[in-house]
Amino acid sequence: MQVIVLRLDYQSSTIFEQLQQQAQNAASKQKAALPPHLTLQSFTHSNPLELKKAIEPWAVKMKQFSLSFASLGFFKQQGSFYAAPVVTKPLAQMHSALSLSTQEFTGHNAFYTPDQWVPHATIINHIAPPFWGPLFARLSMEFKPFAAKAVAIECWSVVQGKAQTEWSIFLLE
């Protein structure tokens, strides 16, 4: 599976890693999460270099932009907890440009289409129902709204929960 992700600056990534560690400790999970990111699109089987050719023409012109993570969220289907950014014009425009430039690729995950996408940065996945309440309470105590900066678009190949970076496009300063 290939995913196109938005990477964040070092300072906000550190905040996410601390939240991920708190969640792993509270849930007694040893498995490390993927690096902090927002997933923009997911494909079941696409050539990473072909994806880059489709995305690069507009992505290399994009400037870094600010994000504000103001709340926590939860996806019941996968027992996932996440931090939610405020949807800004640059974030929406980036996602729209990505959707348009990759529409000819097969194997899109419907959750990432413009009308269904919920921007989020996953803190932890696959939490069993009995732990949802206590973990949400713990994360709520730890979480404080924070600012972040979008700094790169990357393509990852994800196999068995591990990501390999195929390519990166750094946004202009």
TrEMBL record:
Gene3D superfamilies: Cyclic phosphodiesterase
Top-level taxonomic group: Bacteria
Cited InterPro entries: Cyclic_Pdiesterase (IPR009097)
Protein name: 2'-5' RNA ligase family protein
UniProt keywords, alphabetically: Ligase
GO molecular function annotations of the record: ligase activity
Pfam families for the chain: 2_5_RNA_ligase2 (PF13563)
